[in-house]
Amino acid sequence: MENDGRCPLHVHAFLALSLDGFIARKDGGLDWLPTENVPGEDLGFESFLSGVDVLLMGRRTFQTVLGFGQWPYGALPARIVTSSMESRDIPTWIPGNVELTRKSPVDVLTDLGREGFDSVYADGGLLVRSLLVAGRLDDLVLTRIPILLGDGIPLFGPLDQDIPLAHVETRSFPSGLVQSKYSRSTRNLPRT
Amino acid sequence: MENDGRCPLHVHAFLALSLDGFIARKDGGLDWLPTENVPGEDLGFESFLSGVDVLLMGRRTFQTVLGFGQWPYGALPARIVTSSMESRDIPTWIPGNVELTRKSPVDVLTDLGREGFDSVYADGGLLVRSLLVAGRLDDLVLTRIPILLGDGIPLFGPLDQDIPLAHVETRSFPSGLVQSKYSRSTRNLPRT
Predict the structure, then answer these.
(1) pLDDT less than 50: residues of chain A
(2) Which residue in A32, A33, A172, A189 has the most chain B C-beta atoms within 10 A of its own C-beta, making it the best mutation to test that interface?
(3) CA–CA gap between residue B106 and residue B132 (Å, rounded)
(4) What interface predicted TM-score (ipTM) does this complex get?
(5) For residues B24 and B58, is the Cβ–Cβ distance under 8 A?
(6) B125-175: per-residue pLDDT in tens?
(7) Which stretches of chain B are assigned E, i.e. beta strand?
(8) For residue B140, which of B132, B148, B130, B151 has the smallest C-alpha distance?
(9) Shortest CA gap A182–chain B (Å)
């Protein structure tokens, strides 16, 4: 169903983090993430991905994905929020529906709603954090990997005030991963 | 059953932390912890407490507890690890079986084993972290409160190397708390 611009966009995040709250090592390294697929262990990412119609990603996460050498998001349209990259910095193997933008994440959401998108996958620590602070993140799936890294790129950071969240559900997996879904709390500030 | 000194002590921690990993605000404040008892919601702390026979606590956490105005650990013997406090700094309303020590946490564990203790409740961020690093923490119950504080006293900190942990179990509660138990991983360094 196409958004006719009258309904608010829904914005979702789906992130893996260490027990001490890092989404990557200082250099962006993800070697500590489990790489083996445990039979029968479906973390739900494919299902999550099938429920969104556009990807909104921060520049640093985009550069990490460029290091993978393949684009894991299929034909999903994507907007990359960056003040430093130019179109010519996008490798030719990246699909044509990946666009850079210099707008703020919240302004990009406004554009995406006008363009008829319904459901946004927000990715990247800084970007997710900025949407949390703006009250624009509807829900957040956190998958905790049972490891302490000691240092790295944190998901969370300083805030002007507490942000309470509402717990939706938690699942644990044979491999030791614990996945919790949180949504915006009714105790939060109203959307701006 | 009294420890005859031939069996290793078991060391356990039980901590509440915010989603962004803080155990207290910068000033030690715990106002963000849920204070209402939700009917039927047993977080298991009483059961945990009945399974230990001595408390090992860091100085900063001890001072936070002093601020409560009552000692919540009943007749449990306690050792407080501090390099700055003196016996005269302990208020008179604190039970007589609370002792200060200037030894390192690991050395105190050696003493406690010799004294016949079996099962240690380790409390305080720095202390728990030092025991984790030393490979002397057997298990760790983390209860995540669904709130982001942005700043405070973190449970975890810098490490010389990764510390993998083994997930034991996870429970979630109607109030939104998520409690996970982790134990030392077989991938960890051997005990020193």
Answers:
(1) 1, 188-192
(2) A172
(3) 11
(4) 0.91
(5) no
(6) 999 999 999 999 999 999 999 999 999 999 999 999 999 999 999 999 999
(7) 10-18, 22-24, 54-58, 78-81, 98-101, 119-123, 139-145, 147-148, 153-154, 163-172, 178-184
(8) B132
(9) 8
Contacts of B31 in chain A (CB under 8 A): none
Structure-token pair, residue A11: 């914005």
> A128 near A142, Cβ under 8 Å?
no
Domains identified in chain B and CATH numbers? 10-28+42-184 (3.40.430.10)
Total-model pTM:
0.91
Which has the closest alpha carbon to A160: A123, A119, A189, A121? Answer: A189
Mean pLDDT (whole number) for B58-82: 93
Of B143, B189, B188, the C-alpha closest to B165 is: B188
Nearest CA to B141 out of B9, B11, B13 is that of B13
Tell me how far apart the alpha carbons of residues A138 and A119 are, in angstroms, rounded to a whole number. Answer: 10
Name every residue whose Cβ is closer than 8 Å to that of residue B156 and which is 6 or more positions away in sequence: A19, A20, A21, A148, A150, B21, B129
The total number of residues shown for chain A amounts to 192
